[in-house]
Write a structure and sequence with these properties.
It is built from 14 helices and 13 strands. With about 425 residues, it is α/β, with parallel strands linked by helices. Helix content is about 40%, strand content about 15%. The strands form three sheets. Strands 3-2-1-4-5-6 form a six-stranded parallel β-sheet, sandwiched between helices. It has two domains: about 200 residues, 3-Layer(aba) Sandwich (Rossmann fold), CATH 3.40.50.720; about 130 residues, Rossmann fold, CATH 3.40.50.720.
Length: about 425
């Protein structure tokens, strides 16, 4: 094993896989594989619809090619799996993409190859689920004919400061020699350095608790917000005051969506219950955060009622649909919970978001985004996502969208406390 004859195959070209492919493609022969032919054609044309990589960044990867043909990666000797790991409607791990990727690998893997998984999983999944599939279907023996590693992704969609190369990378391998090699491969592209974990399970566990810890921190702030709303105290003012203490953590209330924080804890709780431990704190945090969309809708209804605005058939504008600001990612967005709840009150709901793909929102959520904003139309305006363009509008432009008597709800604390009628 050495870096000189490295030929890398990246399986999955989404928010995680593409930045990896680009960085490796600057130094090594790299093939980015994705089953989505449209995605491959898009990247070949020099454009990334996730906006994680600029056109110039794509051009800079001189040794990178793309393919939707599995046979094209057969000559690789270092495979990295970056497929999504979602949850089911019952909040249990859905390992289907990971299993399919393992099946695909079994058709192309050769003796001496290394397979590294980056997808978020519960501790043990790589060796208990993925490796047996590759072994059985390829006929190769694990840690004799082929080897494995785990290096959890730490991509933050839309973040242009904390990038792949500037975030320390956790690495691990199925043997001490492979662990050293995997670490060296990543160290060659990650400027921030690497942390070699003692085992694959440790690396898997580290990833899953990173986002679980963040989920719980946001959950306690959301619970604070619910309490302070009942006490008629502005939550942001309280957080600013408490934040003057050196060790107070700077979290804000909000809707916890996306493909990481709102998903990963369920991987850990699933495994915990499988081994006979029922987690209490983690699941309590999940319940609070999963219920925030419904809470926002209920708060809006109460405010409309207090202003004597007729609830039935009220017209509401929601500004923003992606799971976070200045990012086109609509996976697991909690804005849909607000939309559904308001529609249950027989309200008409318009959603505007220039960042989101209209086609994807229609396909995944059966929701049609509006194309333009018209003044004087709405009984309520909900500032749900803090896109830069929304912040730049200012309170006067936002209020012009409403009827003479309306409610302006600032979910993201973009406006000052005096400018909004209600804040989370």
């Amino acid at each position: 094993m050495n870096l000189n004859n490295l030929k890398i195959g990246i399986i999955g070209l989404g928010y995680v896989g593409l930045p990896l492919a680009v960085e490796f493609g600057k130094k090594y022969q790299t093939i980015g594989f994705d089953i989505n032919t449209g995605r491959v054609l898009e990247l070949e044309s020099g454009f990334d619809s996730t906006l994680e990589c600029t056109n110039d960044e794509l051009k800079s990867a001189k040794l990178l090619t793309y393919s939707s043909n599995l046979e094209s990666i057969k000559g690789c000797n270092f495979y990295i799996v970056t497929v999504p790991t979602p949850i089911t409607e019952e909040n249990t791990p859905d390992l289907t993409p990971l299993k399919k990727a393992s099946e695909a690998l079994s058709k192309v893997i050769s003796k001496g190859d290394v397979v590294v998984f980056e997808s978020t999983v519960y501790p043990g999944a790589t060796e208990e689920v993925c490796i047996p599939i590759i072994e059985k279907m390829s006929g190769l023996t694990f840690n004799q004919d082929f080897f494995a590693g785990y290096s959890p992704e730490r991509i933050n969609p839309g973040d242009k400061v904390n990038r792949l190369t500037t975030i320390m990378k956790i690495t691990s391998g199925s043997t001490s020699e492979v662990a050293d090699f995997v670490d060296a491969v990543y160290a060659s592209i990650v400027d921030a350095g690497t942390h070699k974990a003692s085992s694959i399970k440790v690396a898997e566990a580290a990833k899953v608790i990173e986002n679980t810890q963040r989920d719980l921190n946001i959950a306690i702030i959301n619970e604070f917000a619910k309490i302070f709303n009942k006490l008629d105290i502005d939550t942001e003012e309280v957080l600013k005051a408490a934040g003057t203490k050196w060790n107070f953590l700077p979290f804000k209330p909000g809707l916890v969506g996306g493909h990481c924080i709102s998903v990963d804890p369920y991987y850990l709780t699933h495994k915990a219950q499988e081994v006979g431990y029922r987690p209490e704190v983690i699941l309590a945090g999940r319940r609070i955060n999963d219920g925030m969309g419904e809470y926002v809708a209920t708060q809006l209804v109460k405010k409309l009622a207090s202003k004597k605005i007729h609830i039935d058939e009220a017209k509401v504008l929601i500004l923003g649909f992606t799971f976070k600001g200045d990012c086109p990612d609509v996976r697991n967005t909690k804005i849909i919970d607000i939309v559904k709840e308001l529609k249950d009150f027989n309200m008409t709901v318009d959603v505007y978001d220039s960042w989101a793909s209209k086609e994807e929102v229609q396909r995944e959520y059966n929701l049609e985004l509006i194309d333009e904003l018209n003044e004087g139309q709405y009984d309520a305006i909900v500032l749900a996502v803090d896109h830069s363009e929304t912040k730049l509008m200012g309170v006067d432009a936002l209020r012009k969208l409403g009827k003479q008597d309306h409610v302006l709800y600032d979910v993201k604390h973009v406006l000052s406390v005096d400018d909004a009628d209600i804040r989370l």
